[in-house]
From TrEMBL:
InterPro entries: 2Fe-2S-bd (IPR002888), 2Fe-2S-bd_dom_sf (IPR036884), 2Fe-2S_ferredoxin-like_sf (IPR036010), 2Fe-2S_ferredoxin-type (IPR001041), 2Fe2S_fd_BS (IPR006058), Aldehyde_Oxdr_Iron-Sulfur (IPR052914), Beta-grasp_dom_sf (IPR012675). It comes from Roseomonas fluvialis. This is Aldehyde dehydrogenase. Residues 24-100 form the 2Fe-2S ferredoxin-type domain. Residues 1-27 are annotated as: Disordered. Residues 1-14 have a biased composition (Low complexity).
Length: 200
């Protein structure tokens, strides 16, 4: 359990004398582990992951739902964590980029494909691209380069590595095939289904 003592935003508010919002207690299963976390009611899932759960892999780009850098899986569906209240995720399962590799550190097929295709430059968008690609493949939206480009269009890359990103998704989809869509370690991707992920 991660307690209120780790609430960085609350500490900052206390230092400035600004009022803090009411606290909430939220139960989240993140990358296969369940936590009960006390947090400000207004905190986003993105800030909760990064600032209270020490999971900085999920990036903050625009912080307004426009870039996809903060993409995570919520009960298998890809979402923008910056636009999601942590309190709204009570009882739900989240997978971040940190949860994709196997327990022994072996990267999953999508992660390996991004490396093989050199699908990044600065890398800032990459965690969101990879998580989104996992869902894209599992949704069955990786049948062609055109389809991948369309269904990955919510993830922007300021370095314009789009051709390599599409190639990486194609490579991973080819490796995973139908079996991969069924048993990817990040679990089911159909919305409203519960993820079955490895214990982190
Ligand atoms: S940081 Fe969430 S969409 Fe840009
Ligand atoms: S690799 Fe730099 S933003 Fe995508």
């Amino acid at each position: 359990m991660i307690g209120a003592a780790s609430l960085g935003a609350e500490s900052a508010s206390a230092q400035t004398g600004a009022p803090t919002s009411p606290s909430r207690s939220t139960r989240l299963t993140v990358n296969g582990r369940t936590h009960v976390i006390v947090h400000e009611a207004r905190v986003s899932l993105l800030d909760l992951l990064r600032e209270q759960m020490a999971l900085p892999g999920t990036k903050k780009g625009c912080n307004e739902g426009a870039c996809g850098a903060c993409t995570v899986l919520l009960d298998g569906a890809r979402i923008n964590a910056c636009m999601t209240l942590a309190a709204a995720c009570d009882g739900r399962a989240i997978v971040t980029v940190e949860g994709l590799a196997s327990a022994d550190g072996t990267l999953d097929a999508v992660q390996r494909a991004f490396i093989a295709e050199d699908a990044f430059q600065c890398g800032y968008c990459t965690p969101g691209q990879i998580v989104s690609a996992v869902a894209c493949i599992r949704e069955g939206h990786a049948g062609s380069a055109t389809e991948i480009a369309e269904w990955m269009s919510g993830n922007l890359c300021r370095c314009a590595a789009y051709p390599q990103i599409v190639a990486a998704v194609e490579r991973a989809a080819a490796e995973l095939g139908a079996a991969g869509r069924a048993v990817h370690p990040s679990g089911a991707v159909q919305p409203a289904t519960v993820l079955s992920v490895r214990a982190g």
